[in-house]
Structure formats: C-alpha cells, structure tokens
Amino acid sequence: MERKYISEIKSDSGKVIVGGWVSELRIFGGIKFIVLRDRTGLAQIVLPKKEVSKELFDLVDSFSKESVILVHGLVKKAEQAMNGFEIVPEKIELISKAEAPIPLDISGKIESDLSSRLDWRFLDLRTLKNNALFKIRSKTFKAVIDYFDSLDFTAIQTPKITSAGVESGAELFEIKYFDKKAFLSQSPQIYKQMMVAAGFEKVYEIGPIFRAEKSHTTRHLTEFTGVDFEMGFIKDESTVMDIIEGMLKHIISSIKKECEKELKLFEVELIVPTKIPRIPIQEIRKMLKEKGKIIPENDDLDAEAEELLGKIVKEKFNSEFVFATNYPFTKRPFYHMKPENDSNGTRSFDLIWNGVEIATGAQREHRYEILKAQGKEKGVNLDEMKDYAAIFKYGCPPHGGVGFGLDRIVQRMLKLENIKEALLLPRDPERLNP
Ligand code: 4AD
Ligand code: MG
User: What is the model's pTM?
Assistant: First the structure.
C-alpha cells in the first residue's frame, strides 16, 4: 500500500497509510488522540484503549510534538472530527523523533514574534498557513511565466556578479572578485536593454536582486526576487503599462482560480483590476495636498504619501492600483527618456498597489547623443560605461520596461504586515541567518 495525502482520504477509504508530523498529542487514561499534519491538511488519529493493541497504546506515550510518524490504519466516519473522519491505527512507525520542547510554538496558541519565527523559519514554515502562502507565491511565479510566455517573451538569466550598475551607486554590495572589485547586481537593467538590442525584442527575467540599503521598514529587503521585463518597438511608456495591466489581471485571476482554499486562510478578497488609472505625479501632488499632505515639487512620494494615494484612488476610482506617471528627471535615473516638450520630465511611472510601490518603469532613452547628454546632467559619464554605451551605437530600437519586486507583489496580495513574511529566508541589514 502507498502513503496517501490527508486531502485524498474520504470517510469510506478503508485501510490507509498516512504520514506526517505530530501536530497535537492528547493523552487520556482510556483514549489517546494524535492530530497528524501533512502538506495537505490535518487528520485525527484516535486510539481507544479497547480497540488497539496494548503495545501500540503504550508506544504513543513516547511520541513528542513535531515528530514524524507513519500511520497504518482504518478510516472511520466521525461527524465530530475535523474532516468527517478519523483513523484508528493498527500500526504506527516513529520515523523521526523530535526533541522536546521544540524551540518555536507553531500551534497558533501562542503568538511568536517575527524575529523568533525567522530564526526558526523551517519550523515556522510548517504551519498550514505558511504552506498556503508559499503555494500562492509559487502559483504567482508560474502565472508570471505563463503570461510572458503567452506573449512570446524570451526568458533570460543575466549575471548577478557585475562590474557596475546603472541605478544609484550607493546601494551596491561590493564583493572581492579575485584581484578585482565587483558588485552584486542591483538590477538586470543593463542586460535586459542589451537583449532588446540583441534582437530578442521582448525579454523577461525573474531573478535575485541585491540592494545595500540600510532600510528597516516593512517593505525593504537586501535581497529580493525581481520580476523585470523589457521590450522594443514600443509606442511609448503606455505600451509598457498596457503589458503590466495584462500581467496583473492574469496573476490575480489565476490565484483566485487556483488557490481558492489557500486564500481563505488570509481573509483577503482579491479583485482583478480592469483599467488602472494613470495619473501624472503633478496631479497626484495636488490630490495629496487637498488631503493635507504636501509633497514639494521635486520630491518623491514618501511612504505616507503612497498610503494616502492608495486610499484616494480606492475612493475616487474604486481601484487598488494606480500608475503615478511623468516623474521629474531629478528623481529618475539618467536613462529614462524625457518627453519631447518637457526637459524636466520623464516617460516614467511607478505602480502603487494598496498604498505601496510595487514597480518602477519607463521608456528608455535609446538615442546615444541624447543619452550621453542626460548622463552628463546627472554626473554620469557614458564614455566610462563602455558596455552600456555600446548598446545604443549599433542599432537600438525605442524600448522600455519595468522592474517589480515579487516579494512586494505577494505582500500586497495577501496584505502581509511585513515583506519578510512573503519570502522563505529574508535578508535585511542585520539578518544573514539562517
Ligand atoms: O524601483 P526600483 O529600484 O527600479 C529598478 O530597479 C529599475 N531598474 C526598474 C526599471 O525597469 N526601470 O526597483 C523595482 C522594484 C520596486 O518597485 C520594488 O517593488 C522592488 O523592486 N524593490 C524592492 N523590494 C524589496 N526590497 C527592496 N529593497 C527593494 N527595492 C526595490
Ligand atoms: Mg522605484
């Protein structure tokens, strides 16, 4: 006989083998209960003294919570039990005994703080809620791939050990690379533009991103998973926003369909977006001012402003999402294209979901001389960035793209308090373990 998952068992399944972790153990004089947990759910194992052998009845006393056991038993209908059945064992194998007490309570009876949970993450991940969370993350990952694949984008994997970046230099992690200085990649920006110029036209990458930001917030990590895409022959940045809209629709409708059971554990209602409002940042400043939040002309939206903006668009447009467009050039990297009639602006946007930025994108400047001049304005010397400069010298179409944080998508989707809950083993300025 083969082991079955708990979710496969019905009250008339007869003899079965189930295996998993001892979630609960209740020992009374005449009866003993084990709540068994596997990746699909919980099941009650019941041992009435009169119905099982003395040897088996006594064996259970040596079990501890979180031990791994294999149960050979008979399924019986039991209206009062959690799934309408319970299992009376004939034999139980103790596969791996857990030391007691376990260092983290995962019964849900005592709330553990996030730091302890992360210290003992593999135990923390055993809860059904965390199992569900990472199934949702896995399905999100798959939905992204399916979406770009359906549009015939090429998946690329670019180097994470680099000699330089094009974003702000302060956020780079320096590493020793034999006798040279190197950096961990803070964005696939250069390479995705390179692959557009390589003739792939439409590329996407899901991969690690490193940021040496000493930020202690509920939305910053030093290592996260980026979802980036870049495409050639666009009309302008609106083409990029159109693709993003399609991506979000696809992700959210897929999760609603494929993770119905898992979503219930998070008490969130997912809404598939229709048309996402696109509002120039200058307009947004006015909207915020009306609500008492002043953002000076050339400043970025701070966390408070993003949150307030989230509320405003929910109220005004009944949308959880908003594109904030036309950022001033002073706030954007040198490679963002300027609109024809606005030398202080850029063809760029941020995407805000429920009050937090989840993506930044733009049309890129592909005309070498203009790019070089824009670099100069920002103190960037394109002549010193030979690999990047070359992209634009030998035939490069107009193009644009965006970078998302997968962890932020999952955080916003499930309304998690802290981004660190959205990935397996988070890294922040203090945390390097486990
Ligand atoms: O806004 P960012 O820095 O933009 C770029 O990297 C550009 N190269 C993208 C482009 O194609 N123009 O990063 C993109 C996204 C952010 O919107 C956010 O979702 C996520 O990456 N992100 C972070 N997530 C977690 N922790 C951090 N420290 C993050 N920094 C950025
Ligand atoms: Mg950004």
Answer: 0.96
